[in-house]
Specification:
60% helix, 810 residues, 4 domains, 11-stranded mixed β-sheet
Amino acid sequence: MRHLVLAQARAHRGRYVASALAVVVAVAFVVATLVLGSTVDSAITTSTAAQYDGAAAVITESDSGLDPDGVLTAISAVPGVEASALDVTGPIKVAGTDGYSTASTVSGDVSLRWQRLADGRWPSGPGEVTVGSSSRHAIGDSLAITDIDGKPAAGDVTVVGTVDLAGSPLALDSRLVFGDVAQVRAWAGEYTEWEIRVAGRGGSALTDVLAAAVPGAQVTTGADRATAVAGSYVGDIGVLRNVLLCFAAIAVVVAGLVISNTFAVLLAARTREFALMRCVGVTSAQVRRSVRAESVIVGFVSAVFGVLAGCGLAAAVVAVARAADVPIPLTSIAVTPGAIGLGLLLGTVVTVIAANGPARAATRVSALAAMHPLETQPELVRDTWVRRVCALLAIAGGAALLGIGAAVGNVLMACPGGLMLFVGVILASRRIVPALVGAVGQVLARFGGPVAALAAGNARRNPRRTASTATALFIGVTLTSTIVVGIGTLKAGAPALIDENFPVDVAVMSVPDASDGAVDRFTALDGLRAGTAVANTTVGVGETEFFVTGVDPDSAAQTLRDDVRLPQPGTIALEPALAETLGVREGEAITVRGDTGSRELTVVTAGPGAPDLIALADLQAIDSETADTVWLRLDDGLTDDRLVAVSDDIARVAADISPGSEVVGAVANRQMLEKVLDTMLLVVGGLLSIAILIALIGVGNTMALSVIERRRETGMLRALGLSRSGVRSLLVREGVIIAGVASVLGVALGLLLGTAGTASVIGAGYVTPGAVPWAQLVAIVVAGSVAGVVASLIPAYRAGRTSPVAALTG
């Protein structure tokens, strides 16, 4: 039997091209998705937490009062530790600049030095430093550094190099200075913060050994520490990774369906060959085993090429992203062993499973009957009811999971729900598609003459064939429209999400009498849109004391990016949990007391997690606290260079108003999150071309199967006088009707999946009908219809070229 399998594989290697191509494309799609997901994940982590690249473990400062030098000594004798680096950071002041600067250390061990040198050289002594690439200082400049109290350090230092911070949130800080550990400690004094990065062997076990060697220390793996730091800028980056993994899951389903259709075409063309084998003594089970063995060979060999093609596609997408100046630098392609192994396993297993059904169908017919031309066989009643029940369960269960995932914002719940709904609609397509095709065909038959009427009747007459042909295009259109809708709604909803997480761009703290002209001085700067003065203090209601922020509702409305419910005079805005603790509801009056008096205010409830706010005038009437903080809003669309300049201007004015003021803000977080979203959208958009290619292959394969099944029907039409061009026109018109219906259905389902998927990622409140790219969806319907016609041209041409006698004899 082994010799027969190998002989069959050699004899039919030409026929396997279509099957192999389907496997290659499907595996390439999955591998490219996984590789791009790892690449983007690695790029985000590298951009936001580059210092932990190569660190096996990280020891962070805790409240136990550990001496970092003692920790270094203790871990040097731990087995598995190969190198360690003490990272020290602290605030300093540089003469000639306003506000505080940040000093960080450069590791003496090259293996743990995370900074990339953009120009110049690394410091070689205590009198030399490097600066960030956004710094206003040039190589050769002399810097006079003092501590935050203004006490000068011993001697000036010289700038000898610049550190490349492209893509990092640190690039928005123009006052970064990098020196050795002794320098930074001398400059920052008691305000230093430290952590120790450790390179070594042992993986997670090394962290346990280090924790035992240094009692009281907080020890984590380098990967966990990097994820935590990256998450502080962009939130849970695992969610972003899961978005791309959802595309991999969809690709698995698409691969199975396309490969199954392809093998159906291949085995249908070999029906008489199988019948002849059975007539000479080969059993049905042996034929099925031989087909499975052939599918293993085809699947594995194709999967190898698919893995290579997937890596190449990922590299091409990354190259295009680099050429398009992608916001997050994609410095390398992250090809993981898991992606390669999954691609090989997927290509082989899915091919075997997909070939099993057509193999059973090809051997279910008796040997003598199979020697005659194969005609389409009706589906068994039992199989019909099983299909309908499975379709109903999949649609109901998938819709429930998808709806719950979208409502609660859980993408890991919505993704399997979307897949179940998708599969359920495909299973139900034998009922849905023929009904719609028949309705559309009846309308078109009135205007297209006898050939159009015949095309409509043929499309309606065989539900299985019509549904199979439509499914291939339906899959591609659904996938494409899902991605397009997801991208459109995500881009429209992301700004509101960012605004909610970062409602204040910049806050200047410790500004005495902030309401007395300070706001005007800040808002007069170029690049600032609005500002407001706020006061923070503690007030009491009954036995409960809580922290409130006093704001001017008019100016705060122009400053805050999120639609926060602001208190009007005579009211207090409470977060729902606090209102419940106080036992009050919307519209009720409470007496709020401060350190100088009390006032009766009406309660209004804000959104969950919102700050507790009170009108500044009401707060000043009951409390002696004055406004000491300024909230600022920057202009939209500022580039990184402009943000650096505006930040410097804010620090200058803040230092002039109050030398002890502190400038904080979420500008770096906002900018980083926007860059991550833009990068993700570029990468996902690059996968669209692969999805469209899969759809075209599927349509071509199913149309070819349709032609094989209808050879005698086509021959009869030719014998009755239908010309070759008439046969081609008949099949093309069928393709137009089926492709149009499949495209409309695919866009409708893609609209549902795309909006629900976006809602599961960013929340249902951020998805609006106006964010749906309706014009692009119309274009997809037109393009899908045209693609269906193009894919049917070659099978139609072959059918028209076959002579009537040859077609009637099979």
